[in-house]
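User: Small ask, check this?
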Amino acid sequence: MASASTTSRRPDARFLLAHPAHFIALGFGAGLAPRAPGTFGTVVGLLLCWALQPFLSPLAIALLAVPLFAIGVWACGVAGRNLGVIDSGAIVWDEVVAFLPLAAFAGAVVPQLFAFVLFRLFDIWKPFPIRQLERRIPGGLGVMFDDVLAAGYGALALYFMPFPL
């Protein structure tokens, strides 16, 4: 396999394919989007949920996120080190995995779209303690964990919405 080490802050298709961790961390290529790669990563999470819903229960989809999270800690750590930026915007596996259970439990398409918007807002805004923890937890774990918290805020917001979805 070709050397995966680079100091480029803008990965390209060559970087994506240079190492399996890069392919995973960059969300199968979604992270290469020139604008809003995190949103494209969240779209991958939504599409993955839609692909799994005919075969798995919401709980099973949510539980699938656990091994995907572990894989993400490794993949995001490797890709971040090789990019020279541990939490590069191109690394979107954290959005894919964190959004997956939220989309699964949201159920139907309209609530999933509300969940999508809420997740993106919380992921960008990073309310307390997300930003603080993101700075303190190193490597791939830090990259993955802040998005799980953003999904938690999204789940709480969906739960307390004043209208039925």
